[in-house]
Amino acid sequence: MATASRFLLRKLPRFLKLSPTLLRSNGVRVSSNLIQDSIEPLDSFWRIGSRIRHDSLTTRSFSSQGPASVDYSSVLQEEEFHKLANFTINHLLEKIEIDGFDIDYGNEVLTLKLGSLGTYVLNKQTPNRQIWMSSPVSGPSRFDWDRDANAWIYRRTEAKLHKLLEEELENLCGEPIQLS
Predict the structure, then answer these.
(1) DSSP tag of 21
(2) What separation in angstroms does the CA of 21 have from each of 13, 27, 65?
(3) Is the pTM here over 0.70, yes or no?
(4) Is 60 helix (H, G, I), strand (E, B) or coil?
(5) Which chemical reaction does it catalyze (predicted)?
(6) Who wins on pLDDT, 1 or 172?
(7) What is 75-173's CATH number?
C-alpha cells in the first residue's frame, strides 16, 4: 500500500490537472492512508469550500499565514483558574438538589446521574483553562472564563454555564432549578 500511495501522490497533481508547484505553494496535503488502488474519474469529485473530496481521497489547502495570534492577557493564570473553577464546581454541588438522583464529586469531577434521563459530567481542564461539561441534552461543551461577563461562557453559543445547566435540568426534571 505504501508503494501505491507514493505512486499516486506523484500522479495525483497530473490527474487533478494541478501543477506540483501550485500544490506545494498552497500547502495542499493529501491523506495517503485514505488512498485506494483505483480512483474514479474526476467528475465524481465534488467541491466543499477549499476541499476536493472523494470517498477514498481528501485534499485540503491550508493558509501559509499560520495560526491566529492568541491574546494571552485574557488567559487565566493557573492559580486563578483553579480558584474560579473549584468555586464554581463546589457551588454547583451545593445548589443542585434534585430528589431521587445521585450527585457525586470526586477527583475534581462533578457527576449528576439522572437515571434514564442521562448523566452530566463537569470537570476542570487545567491546560485549556476551561470547565468541560458533558450533557445528555446538548452534548459536550467547553466553557471559558469571561472576565467581562464574570461567568463561564461556551464560545460557540455564548451560553453561560449556570444558565444552560438550569434550563436543561428544569426541562429534564420538570422542577424549577436555581443555580445562580
Answers:
(1) H
(2) 9, 10, 18
(3) no
(4) strand
(5) 4 Fe(2+) + O2 + 4 H(+) = 4 Fe(3+) + 2 H2O
(6) 172
(7) 3.30.920.10
